[in-house]
Design goal:
Blueprint (H helix, E strand, L loop, with lengths): L1 H14 L2 E9 L10 E7 L3 H17 L3 E4 H4 L8 H11 L3 E17 L2 E11 L2 E11 L2 E16 L5 E11 L2 H22 L1
Parallel strand pairs: 2-3, 2-4
Antiparallel strand pairs: 1-8, 4-7, 5-6, 7-8
Helix pairs in contact: 2-5
Length: about 200
């Protein structure tokens, strides 16, 4: 039983390895929930982060009956396009909005968890008398990595270019990969929250 509890605690720690706070201003004249097919643009120089975030956005959006189309899918980054060509590609894709995600700031580091020793004593009845038996455990003595990032998220109507909503998000986790998995859930949650207020 104790072994199962320890495994559950470790599983929980690995699952909840990032957290995100998000807040928004929404255009009161626009129904957010009418946007279902979004062209996603991620402003970052970190290719790994872009690919991870795009992949997770596509999955999370699909689970919520939304469609996220990554800009790198329609407009390969290493190919040259004129503004007119880009406009034509976007128009043919049938998207109704552009979701822009820009990293405003980010940092990475580590925190040292000091080594601690704990000793507890249990008594046992051995050879007709109680004997005190020490049990010593240690914890810590390692560095824990962290990543933090602040994002600006904007949803724009593709036809009118009107801003539907703008959000800021602050994420922190053990790695930028963990943040890329957590952020999309909060973007969809905020999208729903804004839409339900109308």
């Amino acid at each position: 039983m104790r072994k199962n509890l320890i495994l559950l605690v470790f599983a929980f720690l690995f699952i909840s390895c990032a957290s995100t706070r998000i807040s928004s201003f929404a255009n009161p004249d626009i129904d957010v929930l009418k946007y279902k097919k979004m062209f996603v643009v991620i402003d970052s120089s970190d290719i790994d982060f872009i690919q991870r975030l795009e992949k997770t956005l596509v999955k999370v959006f699909a689970k919520n009956n939304l469609e996220a189309i990554p800009s790198t899918q329609l407009i390969p980054p290493l190919k040259k396009f004129s503004d007119e060509e880009i406009d034509n590609i976007i128009e043919k894709s049938g998207v109704d909005s552009v979701l822009s995600i820009a990293i405003v700031s980010a940092d990475h580091g580590s925190t040292y968890i000091p080594l601690q020793t704990h000793t507890r004593y249990d008594s046992a009845f051995i050879n007709g008398r109680y004997v005190s038996i020490p049990y010593t455990t240690t914890s810590g003595g390692y560095s824990k990595p962290y990543s933090r990032a602040r994002f600006e998220i904007t949803l724009k109507d593709i036809k009118t270019d009107e801003i539907v909503f703008v959000s800021t998000a602050y994420s922190e986790g053990e790695s930028i990969g963990a943040i890329s998995k957590d952020l999309p859930r909060h973007i969809v949650k905020q999208y729903r929250k804004i839409g339900e207020k109308k």
